[in-house]
Amino acid sequence: MPKNQEYDFIVVSNRLPVDRIIDVDGEPTWRRSPGGLVTALEPVMREADGAWVGWAGKADLELPPSTEDGIHIVPVALSALEVEHYYEGFSNDTLWPLYHDVISPPAFHREWWESYRAVNRRFAEASAAIAAPNATVWVQDYQLQLVPAMLRELRPDLTIGFFNHIPFPPYGIYSQLPWRRQIVEGLLGADVIGFQRVADAGNFSRAVRRLFGYATKSPEIRVPLEGGGHRTVVAKAFPISIDVESFEQMARRPEIIERARQIREDLGNPTTIMLGVDRLDYTKGIGHRLKAYGELLSSGSITVGDSILVQVASPSRERVEAYMQLRDEIELTVGRLNGDYATISHGAIAYLHHGYPREEMVALYLAADVMLVTALRDGMNLVAKEYVACRHDEDGVLVLSEFAGAADELKNALLVNPHDIEGLKESMMQAVVMPKRERGSRMRALRRRLRDNDVSHWSHTFLETLEGAARKAR
Ligand SMILES: O=P(O)(O)OC[C@H]1O[C@H](O[C@H]2O[C@H](CO)[C@@H](O)[C@H](O)[C@H]2O)[C@H](O)[C@@H](O)[C@@H]1O
Ligand SMILES: O=c1ccn([C@@H]2O[C@H](COP(=O)(O)OP(=O)(O)O)[C@@H](O)[C@H]2O)c(=O)[nH]1
Known about the structure:
This protein is of the alpha/beta class. It is built from 16 helices and 18 strands. The chain has 2 domains: 7-240 and 457-473, Glycogen Phosphorylase B (Rossmann fold, 3-Layer(aba) Sandwich), CATH 3.40.50; 244-451, Glycogen Phosphorylase B (Rossmann fold, 3-Layer(aba) Sandwich). A 10-stranded mixed sheet has the order 5-6-4-1-7-8-9-12-11-10, with helices on both faces. It starts with 6 loop residues before the first strand and ends with a helix. Uridine-5'-diphosphate (UDP) is lined by residues 35-36, 39, 277, 279, 312, 314, 355-356, 358, 361, 380-383, 386.
């Protein structure tokens, strides 16, 4: 790629779609990055001839732009201290818990904030340097909330969109943030700010009114300009989705169907396989799920041999204290439940602390009778949508937390409040005994709903709104 290549369309996110890793032979190579942001944006970028600006997942790594698996990537380097202060610190120990209902207490440190600002500036400069005149730049997520305003200052010709993949909290929580004004100002640099849920967009508009007193009339916010007049910023919900077709196609492949059969056989062909798939994150409600499952075992409502819970808990943010603690808690609970209930031949919980490739995920979805998504708070939760996309057999039951963004659309799931352990147990049992007819009718309705909003619909709707807003502003 020539050095100063310019692009008309740029996606900017903390993570690139691939992480730089060292393989077993000691050779550097790339591996798919974790999390739903990459799952959703990868097909969007394949369709567009743009560039993806982001971090390669390792400290102190200066890499030239390149094309990996058909996507132009422009790596931004972070020092080890920046990984600690900007990524693990401000992004994942301040903003992440604050924006997820303070499930874990957020930590506020001024040096983390300074690092967040410096790294946001670097992302803004890296994007400005490769943007063609009047290009569209789409900034992603809470790690980069200052980038829109920084970019607007550097390049007023650009059309700037922002999408927040996690919730935006109510003002009573948001207002704890010492840098609450600066973050809102950063976001208001965008022409369109997208959120997962209508409630998130409402919370953001309220924060703008409370902090700055700007006039808002949903979905528009009037931002006064220095020399008089105003700019209009659109703040609106655009629920993210997945490439439904590609998940379904994968789930129809004979070798994946065979792998699903093999998984069931390896688990001893139980009557009911329950499945949880999450990054090992305190927002995902894994502990609540295990508590409910343990009580069902204890009361004899379910028995080992007849039922098993497969829990994929993929490694995440492993140097952040709250995540280390969570891992200890979860693994202690799993150990106890297996110790109390497993037999030589049958486990109670198959606990897997790994990140699996997509093919294996799809086989697991096909093998699972009941999918448990019990997040305490989650921007969207693409796992719930992937389960539905894969069930072309119109079978399987989705138990879904009402605190996951996906619950706004997937109303034919069994919706639960994961804090209500009795209610959760009842829903899990309802899923176990649900008649085939009801499973089929619920799954058909879920699949219809999912097809109405796949990831290409999401990105086109957002980008059309962005184009319209920018046209009005010119
Ligand atoms: O990059 P990491 O720190 O390893 O974390 C992985 C990603 O987690 C979060 O995902 C969110 O985006 C999903 C897609 O919109 C959504 O379904 C989910 O509810 C969110 O939690 C995070 O927002 C991403 O930035 C991370 O890359
Ligand atoms: O071992 C794993 C665990 C998860 N995932 C994928 O990671 C994404 C998780 O996205 P979600 O929106 O559910 O949550 P996030 O991790 O982004 O908070 C989904 O595409 C999963 O299929 C995966 O590929 N391998």
